[in-house]
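=== RUN LOG ===
request id: a7f3
mode: sequence -> structure
chains: 1
length: 311
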Amino acid sequence: IRSCYCLILLFDWRRYKLLTFSFLCMRNKYKYIFFSYFMSLLESAAFGLKHYTIRRWNCLFGIPLEAGENLAQNLNIDHLKLLWCLYFFRRYQPQSVCASWASVDEKTFNTHVMRSITKLDQFLPPVSCFYFLYFGLFAYLYLKLNFEDRWDNWEHLSPSCFADGTPIPILDLRRIPWCDRSRFYSVKVGGHALQYVFLVHVETGRFLHVSKAYPGGTFEPNIVHKELDDSLIFGEKIMADLLFKNDALFIVSEKEDTPYSRSFDSIRSKIERKIGQVKEWAIANVRFRSSDFRMHAKIINILCRLINYLD
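=== RESULT ===
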């Protein structure tokens, strides 16, 4: 059967593809997606083309099919439920739209997405991050610290890693006092936002640390000091942009356009590209529509770990 399939693919692949796709479209759209991607991989190998379906798959789910297959097996989760979760992260449309796309009701879609988020958080290798878990009226600090990975294949104290922050927009907060709203205002976004700080490895570019969610107006160096002062070594320096220039912990570029500043910015651009990979997911780029900021911080942490997993 496999030999016949290969012969059909080589000699009459276009007509076979169209007929098969038409049949699968009438039966199951998920089978159509998987088979369409598989056919595109074969075509790419045979003709050196990057087919539209591959780009469409990455646009919808953000990860290659092989990585999704491995994730589903390791998580012991249904492939479709994982696709729902990845689609929600990637597109971040209203739940009614996502549920309609998945052909289920909103409650079912939300239940399976939350379960997938929990399993992803348990499986993916940890990244240094702070979580606040609330039990009744008491708050306990749960720490996942993997910041020591900055010394993997790197022994220099200056710099030991790259640091940069970015705001992620949220809906305007109208149910809190006016004096507290100003803390969430971000000049970069031009509205309310959550502030995150990312630290990445100098050589590999893997994420080392992701801060918890802070109000958009929080000063980024203060976030680094608050979360990592106890983990830093004497004499250690972190490479950052000019926003960190008045802090002795960081080394920054020069204001003038000099060969040193150009080389410095070229090296530090690695963290800009890594943050750009996070921003490719709509949930990290579109205004967050919920007031559960702990869940948002958890999702951002999962995205960083997912990017590390795919590297």
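=== NOTES ===
The first helix runs from residue 2 to 27.
Residues 68 and 79 are 8 Å apart (CA to CA).
=== END ===
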